[in-house]
Write a structure and sequence with these properties.
10 helices, two-stranded antiparallel ribbon, two-stranded antiparallel sheet
Length: 255
């Protein structure tokens, strides 16, 4: 979210709060959230409020981020209030948009025509950005679409639809490959953390299916990591001199 203009996410927040006002029943969808996840959300909310009141070096920015994440939570509840067909259409729309961005960005890198539509890229050259000027934007979209792809793939596993499984394996690999090619360090770390957390939510009887699914995802991610190691490793190597106590990136995190 650090790559998004304040007016953009504030406008989005206002729209989401308006939608919640129009559809107040969405608030009660919180009952469907697993208790362990709900407890984690409440704990994070407490930490944010505590930081805003006592420890923040920039209370105004903390307040903006609190507003943004509250709006994102509202969007999550609104989506839970959708019908199954509407949720499926929304999921397919996000996934198809992400795939288009992947193909468009890879085409740019392949032929050296690093334009964002009609404008030449001035930054992040050599990295995948799709139709975005900032690679962080594409990384955020791919993290969202990867969660959807995992859901479709897990569903195909339980249904035993081999053709759908093979197609989704390619889709997941393409998105992980593209995410790594963006060179977004936070994108890579967020994807890794989300994958680890996801394992706790899909682990259920019979255990053979979740184990096979997780093994497959781990294999796809490992292959993509190996193929793109030159693109993302250099980003972490460059960060070594920034992550020093009271220097570089540490000051950004502290504020």
């Amino acid at each position: 979210f650090g790559a998004v203009y304040p007016w953009a996410f504030l406008s989005l927040s206002a729209l989401l709060f308006l939608l919640i006002f129009c559809y107040p029943g969405a608030v009660f969808e919180i009952k469907r959230i697993p208790k362990i996840a709900l407890g984690g959300f409440v704990f994070l909310l407490f930490l944010i409020v505590f930081q805003f009141l006592f420890t923040s070096f920039n209370p105004f920015e903390t307040q903006n981020q609190f507003l943004l994440w509250t709006a994102c939570a509202g969007a999550f509840l609104l989506i839970q209030n959708l019908s199954k067909d509407s949720s499926s259409r929304l999921s397919y729309a996000i996934l198809l948009t992400a795939l288009f961005e992947c193909f468009y960005g890879l085409y740019q890198l392949k032929f050296g025509n690093e334009k964002v539509l009609w404008q030449f890229k001035e930054a992040h050259r050599g990295f995948l950005t799709g139709t975005y000027l900032n690679r962080k934007h594409l990384a955020g979209l791919l993290e969202l679409s990867l969660g959807i792809s995992f859901g479709f793939l897990l569903s195909a596993f339980y249904q035993g639809r081999m053709g759908r499984i093979l197609g989704l394996i390619f889709v997941v690999f393409l998105q992980v490959f593209s995410l790594l090619k963006t060179g977004s360090r936070m994108g890579v770390l967020s994807f890794t953390a989300a994958f680890i957390l996801m394992t706790g939510f899909i682990w259920r009887k019979p255990y053979r299916m979740p184990l096979l699914f997780l093994t497959l995802i781990f294999g796809i991610a490992s292959l993509a990591f190996w193929i793109t190691k030159d693109a993302w490793l250099i980003r972490f190597i460059q960060a070594n001199r920034d992550i020093e106590f009271f220097h570089g990136r540490w000051l950004v995190w502290r504020n």
